[in-house]
Amino acid sequence: MNKNLLQSVREYKKQSIIAPLLVTLEVLMEVLIPLEMAKIIDIGIAEGNLGYIIQRGLILVIMAMMSLFFGVQAGNFAAIAGAGYAKNLRHDIYYKVQDFSFKNIDHFSTSGLVTRMTTDITNIQMAYMMSIRLLARAPIMIILSWVMTLTLSRKAALLFLIVIPVLGGTLLFIAKKAHPHFIKVFDEYDELNNSVQENVNAARVVKAFVREDYEIGKFHGVSKYVYQLFTTAEKIVAWNSPVMQFVMYAVIMILIYIGGKGIVTGTMETGALTSIIVYALQIIGSLMMVTKTRKNAALLLGDLAVQNALQPLWKVYTREQTLFVKSAYLEAMKALHAEEILSQLKDRLAELEGEPVTEENRKHREAELRALRAILIQYEGIDTHHFDIKQKNNHVLLVTNRNHRGILENQTGGKAHPLGVIVQTDDLLQLLQIRTYRDMLFLLPVKGLLEQKPEKAAETVWKPMLAICAKYHREDKPFFFRIECRSAMTLEQRSRFVKKLGSAIEQLSDGKLVNSPGDYEVELRLIANREGKFFPALKFYTIPDHRFAYRKHAIAASMHPSLAALIMELAAPYLKENAQIIDPFCGVGTMLIERDIRVPAREKYGTDIFGEAIDGARENAALAGEQINFIHRDFFDFKHDYLFDEIVTNMPVRGKMTREQLDRLYEKFFRKALTILEKEAVIVMYTGEIGFVKKQLRLHREFSLLEEYCMQSKAGCYLLIIGVKR
Fold it and tell me: Which tops the pLDDT comparison, 68 or 276?
């Protein structure tokens, strides 16, 4: 690395030195482990000495733990050093730019400077971090593994002494040939960024002079050149894998020959041969890090959306032998327009699904399958199932308000559950007529709750999950699912858990359950209890649930229709048929629609100051078949020829309002209510500010609190039934 660049390390020299030292200790532990394994085989197992095996086994465990500790610490120090170095370098470049003369400023384009401050520094940061950890590891591993081999077999050590320079030299030659092309790529980034910046900043100028086609052609030209550079470099780097594979297998065959001959003649022990083979794999593995170049190059082509790269990527993908690289080509193709190769992708998917699964190919096969399916879903969507609504002996959970499960128990004859009401029924159609529950979930028959261990959780749920899916659907084809995890985990923890769980379920089901978060028909819902364990259930989006189909539009503060329906069920004894009702803060009209469905009214009005909400309310009401007058007006300026029998409303949330402003709002509301309500009217109010309501009830004797229902304890939300007498 350039000496001038290294000056930016400064206060992070300590971490930069400690990291490779810790790597050395980590590698030392790793190379000592095969030596101890040889002793266990040659002495402990050969002589049947159990005590010796246990003794050496404990030493192995200690070595492994020490290796892990040193590795973690090395990664920590390397990350600190890399991030700190990038921080200092970005600072130095920024201040250097401030000192530029006009000549230098004219020499560097704005986009070029931006590239150096962002992309280039990020690449340097990664390179520095890899240099002090990963690249430091490779030569140390090679040297120590060779030294250990020398203690076991001079012939094998001599073989390595020949192979290492040959293989290393070949890889260095490949890297040297590919390196200039990658250097040119970064120069072309400047041009690419410059083209984008010019066209964004001067869009009006481009349009005024009708230069769109020229600028598009210019941009495509630069993109094509970047693609050509990467393709050329890729062709060179592609020799990595066959060269290393050939050398690796050749070395192992020679070692088996040497070792086998030594074991027969008595000059070598079995354990020693095993250790030598491990050392061989460690040495060759240390030289194989550059294989990731192909993967990264492919992904970059996708990120740049280089459409011309589609056919070359497909050709390289079909020839690729390194399993972990294949999915990267598909990920790159996903970012491009892949319509022309859809038939080939389908054929490859069918071929891959028919291939036998082994422990060696399982992980990479699943990654390739996911990438193939993702591309096909982009263009064709998922192959959906049809729900069998006539199934008997259904065991379902209806999710509703926990404080008022009794309403749903009376409606269904079910039993209370912490999340709602459990119902056993032969008639799902009847349940789909009830409006007071939010979701219908199908319980997974598992023992106990799921722990936050994705592999273990997957083993528990995949069979019952597949069985329930198959029971309720006619077609025999894969089910596309997503995972909804509701817990106190951080976003990062939850994301990691869901990803691992989805992948494990997909693997265990052999592709019959496909994890597809973007397009799905089944949801595995995991709801955590206080101990962090999960209650598992399924939600089917294939169910013909049309209860709230009218709700096409919603806004941030919109109430869910099931809650509005529950409110009207609780308020039903106070609702009058053929009443004249108004919602002063109607939003998208949910309260008024559910009020009229529960007890039909004669005249219905809704007002709101948010015009988009009123537009949405009108469309929602039309879809629900309701005749409601929605008016874009402030309730406090609203006037009408006759008085109303009811006010039903979800009061505005605090938002950016102060307590004083909210207090005035409630004061104005109750004063206005007195002017528009009949002598014996009722107010059905959902509010999160019960204190302000009770203050106004104390000040206005005309109002009396008839009923008070706590709807959400934590949020402090209440349903209040208020009577009016004047």
Answer: 68
Three-state secondary structure call for residue 88: helix
Helical ranges in 40-49 per DSSP H: 46-47
Q: Write the DSSP symbol of residue 450.
A: B
Polymer length of the chain: 726
Its sign, for the CA torsion 155, 156, 159, 164, is: negative
Q: Answer yes or no: is pLDDT of 465 > 80.
A: yes
Residues 6 or more apart from 336 whose CB is under 8 A from it? 302, 305, 306, 307, 309, 310, 313
pLDDT, one tens digit per residue, over 83-102 is 887 777 777 777 666 666 55
For the segment 532-545, the average pLDDT, to the nearest whole number, is 92
Residue 180 has pLDDT above 70, yes or no: no
Pairwise CA distance, residues 366 & 500, whole Å: 12
Q: Are 163 and 251 in contact (CB under 8 A)?
A: yes
Instruction: Give the number of C-alpha atoms closer than 13 A to the C-alpha of residue 624, restricted to the C-beta side.
Output: 27
Nearest to 436 by CA among 417, 460, 457, 409: 409
Among the residue ranges 180-184, 329-333, 431-435, 608-612, the one predicted with the least confidence is: 180-184
From 120, 117, 91, 104, select the one nearest 187 (Cα to Cα).
Answer: 120
Angular region, 10: left φ>0, alpha ψ -120 to 50, beta rest: left
Chain centroid to CA 37: how far? 41
SS3 of the chain: helix, strand, coil, percent, to 5: 65, 15, 25
Q: What is the DSSP letter of 585?
A: T
What single string gives the DSSP state of each residue in 472-506?
TBS--SPEEEEEEEESSS-HHHHHHHHHHHHHHHH
pLDDT at 673 > cutoff 80: yes
560-592 per-position pLDDT tens digit = 999 999 999 999 999 999 999 999 999 999 999
- Report d(CA 462, CA 509) in Å as an integer: 7
CB 280 within 8 A of CB 175: no
Sorting pLDDT into bands at 50, 70 and 90, what band is 1? very low
**Could you give the CA distance from residue 52 to residue 57 in angstroms, rounded to a whole number?**
8
User: 36 or 265: which carries more pLDDT confidence?
Assistant: 36
Exposed e or buried b per residue across 637-669, where buried means at least 16 C-beta atoms within 10 angstroms of its C-beta: eeeeeeebbbbbbbbbeeeeeeeeebbebbeeb
Domains and CATH numbers, the chain: 3-287 (1.20.1560.10), 394-540 (3.30.2130.30), 561-725 (3.40.50.150)
CA 714 to each of CA 87, 277, 688, 718: distance values in angstroms, whole numbers, following the listed order: 43, 62, 10, 11
Question: Which residue has 């990267």 as its token pair?
Answer: 328
CA atoms within 13 A of residue 690's CA, in its CB half-sphere: 16
The pTM for the full model equals: 0.59
Question: What is the rounded distance in angstroms from the CA atom of residue 357 to the CA atom of residue 512?
Answer: 14
* CB of 274 closer than 8 Å to CB of 41: yes
CB contact at 8 A, 249 and 132: no
Structural tokens at position 97 = 């730019």
Q: What are the backbone angles phi and psi of residue 535, rounded to the nearest 5°? A: -95, 120
CB atoms within 10 A of CB 344: 13
Starting at the edge strand found earlier in the chain, the sheet holding 580-583 runs 629-632, 603-608, 580-583, 644-650, 677-687, 717-725, 703-712
